[in-house]
Structure formats: C-alpha cells, structure tokens
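Exercise 3.2. Students should predict the tertiary structure of the chain below and write it as structure tokens, then compare their answer with the key that follows.

Predict this chain's 3D structure.
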Amino acid sequence: MNKRGFALTGSLIFLLLPSLALAQQEHRILVQTSLWTKHFNPDPKHNNHQQLINLQLHPKKTSTLALTAEQPFLNQLDWFYGGAFFKNSFSQNTTYLYLGGRFNFLQATQANLQPYATLTGGLIHGYRGEYQHKIPFNNLGVAPAIIPSMGIEYRKVTTEVSLFGISGIMWKLGYFFN
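Answer key:
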C-alpha cells in the first residue's frame, strides 16, 4: 500500500474508532459486506468478489432540525458517515470515505420491515496504474464518487442493492449494532 493508501486508511480509522465509543450513546453502527456483484459490461479482468467491509455511523437524532422550508424532504433524511474497504473491479485494494443520507419510505410495519433509499458521496482511492483512469477525475489517485442504494431493514439486519456508477450493481448484507 502506498503513502496515500496509508493516509486514507488512517483517516478512516481516525473517523470510525470514536464511533465504537459513541455506540454506547445509542448511536447505530452498520457493518456490511457484499454478497454479489455484477458488471454491466463484463470483462475477463473484472473481479466480482469485492470482499467489501463497510462501516457506517448513524448518529442518534437529538432533534428535528429544519434544514429548509422549501425542501422538506431534506428534513426527513437520516444523516450518516462511513468508510468502505474492498477490492475494486481490478482486484486492487480500495477505500471509499463518504457522507450519506437515508430516507425511510414508509413507517416501519408491524413486522419491523423498513424500506429505504440511501445516497452517499465521498472520495474513492485505489484505482492505480493501468486502471487509474477507469473512474473519472482520478488524476491525483483520489476521485469523487456518488453511490445510490435501495434496501430493506428488518430489525437490525439490512439488505441493500447499490449502483456503482454506470459500471455495475452490488447486493449487500448488513447488521446494525447499537
């Protein structure tokens, strides 16, 4: 791993280790892994086994903050931040640090099923060498990324489908600790 990789990994650890202490204050921590990946334009070089480890901190809501009267949708978002470690499409170790928002579509049902959508935005590092330009704006080795997802939470278990750009789709499974 190069110096940038160490710096990004160190930043992730710096951001997420305090989360373990915060979990005792009724914040929720989501741990996810990938179950299945499909590239839309398969290539023999593509890796479909990302070995994803994703950590998210969902802070406890202390109040209903009215962000904007014109966009009440934003007031209903549950904000979170996190980081993911995985093997990218070319089997390179990759890190994604992000901020995200979760929107719950309906009130949780009697069966504790909660459908939701998330949108994360952050920085991705790990596409190097001949694959550096496989993602846009990666001239410095770090690029912006936006990842939309749809999922269902049942009690503390989540299942989610995420799009990674126009390249593919990933199915994830997760568990909330609180």
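Discussion points: The longest strand covers residues 113-125. The longest helix spans residues 3-22.
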